[in-house]
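Let us work through a complete example step by step.
Step 1: write down the sequence.
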Amino acid sequence: MALRPAPAPGRPTGHPLGPPPGRPPGGAAPPPRATAPPMELPSVHGALLCVALPALAVCPEHGQLTGDGPDGVYAAGRRLLSRCVLRVAGREPVALQGRMATADRAVFTGVLRAPGAPGPDPGITVERTRSADGTERITLRSAVLRPLRLPVEIALGTDLADLGAVASGRHRPELPATVHGTGLRWTGADGRSVAVTADPPPMDALAAAGVLRWEAELAPGAAFTVRLRLREESGRSTGAPGAGTGRPGGHLFAEARAESDDPRPGELLRTSVEDLRALLQRDPAHPADVHLAAGVPWRCGPVTAEALWAARMALPLGTRLAATTLRALGRTQIPGEGPDSGRVQGPLRDAGPYLPPRCTGIESTLAFPAVLAEARRWGLPAADLEELLPVAERCLDWLRRATGGSGLVPDPGPGGPWRAETQAHAHRAALLGADLLDACDRPGGDALRETAGRLRERFRHEFWLDDPAGGRPVAARTPEGRTWNQLGGWAAHLLDTGLLGGGRYAPGLLDETRTGQVARLLGTPALDSGWGLRGLGTKEPGHNPFGHRAGAVRVHETAVAVAGLAAAGHEKEAASLLRGLLDAAETFGRRLPEMYAGEQRTAGARPVPHPAACRPAAVAAAGAVHALLALAGIRPDAPGRSVSTHPMRSAPWGAIRFSGLVVAGEPFAVRVGRLGLGMVEEAAEGLQLGV
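Step 2: predict the structure and record it as tokens.
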């Protein structure tokens, strides 16, 4: 399902999955290329998005689909229904409320005055429930003390347009309808058809107007219900869970729950897990493999680096998603013996106003062995590890070659620049990769540790700018000595080290003193907006609260900062960022966009979403899980048959209990008391427990 009409700000650009056009299999990959500037995308943040990929419904809050803008019901990126307008007795209901009931279902409430009613009170309640696959239930309930006979009509239409055309404003006229069974049917120029059927059957169907009609007889207190079902020509439902190979279902994630003195963490965790399930999609060529779409509605294409980061942050919910995501990415690895062999393919992504675009393939290559190593700690089955280990070894071979004589990883290669964030990913990959190779009796662990040591030494020497305030990390530098010193959310990745055996964290790029300085900087008002971590500090030239890499809050970076700060013992800064994230989630109905404006929080203000941000988004939903679980500090070592908890001693949300998690393939639950003491309440048999 590829819903992306054009690259949006900060989005990857370039070739999709598979070998780039014009390159023979096994040959060296050409440097990734950026494409044309992105177009303006219509905002969907005021809409209710029902998601169960490959099905999607974009609904205005009033519930009527009028055919304007991107509203409609989609399947695999094609709009199957653009218009669904209800009228009762010739009038549209007065819309009162639209809300999400679950990730894939929205409920709309409206009212009508009964014909001839003397007062202003509405006598008829109209409730509509619409699902992502276009299934809709419309119920009229009467509170009038006399029988009513009301004409009900539903006007339907579609243009069968691609979402890319809809997003760019290239609207096509609606297709003519024909009467089909108990409803209507439309056929496009390519022969594809879609039909809407109704239960009970309508009394009249006007194909020319696209209208279905009923006469509703309502006794006092009675209800009248119409059910609509949207189906493609094949007869398969557009997106019902479990239908064919369309929906992976929710079995990949555990039923994680959080119970605390403050109900908001539990609500955010529940909604985030629902959104992750809704974003699951299959690899069309390999239906057994499932990965997360980067985000809805604009980024539901092939597996991306964001899908891998999201799978990593969702490891406490189970390891199967990580395994299938790694498998899908592994198929894009460049084969052969050339300089790029072992690198995962990926397009360029804009890196903000200062730095040139970066390569998402390098990001994925460095993440691959680290995620595999951490998935093993959480309990990845041996069969998955055995299958994926050779791919990780090729990634690590590429890493050793990429560092070359410099000891640093250029991004994009071969000319760079050397980015601090990329060095953090490379350092983590080397240490976790060495640990993984040693555990699997594979050679190369010592060489990787030497690579990590050289990288760490050079980073500490060349990526730190001393000043009277204690110094700051350097964002990037070139081999010629040019540096970029703008401080932003990227610094959070310097605190993200990864788990080794026995619940130990890998050494970081920075020493303890500089780690403390980075923690202090992340907690300053220049970076902590009150809603989360800004991509660029307010004191930096070019700061833009809506800049995706120039000041906007990115949920992924904020979640990484929360977990890294908590693990390093800087709980004050971690709690502040987590509080901002939790408060922002509340204003967004607990469905966080991937990024929102980094404007300073003030009394009565609300965070503003980035116009091109996806919502729901994989890294935002998984990031919420990652940040919340930092409260418990779970450190698993399934191969070593142990698990420990290192909770935040400050207990910023009072007592909290996490249950329904998965460690070593079995349910896991942990409680953190009001004094910050952790206790494992449920774990796999035979695990040694520690606090």
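Step 3: interpret the result. The chain has twelve helices and 36 strands.
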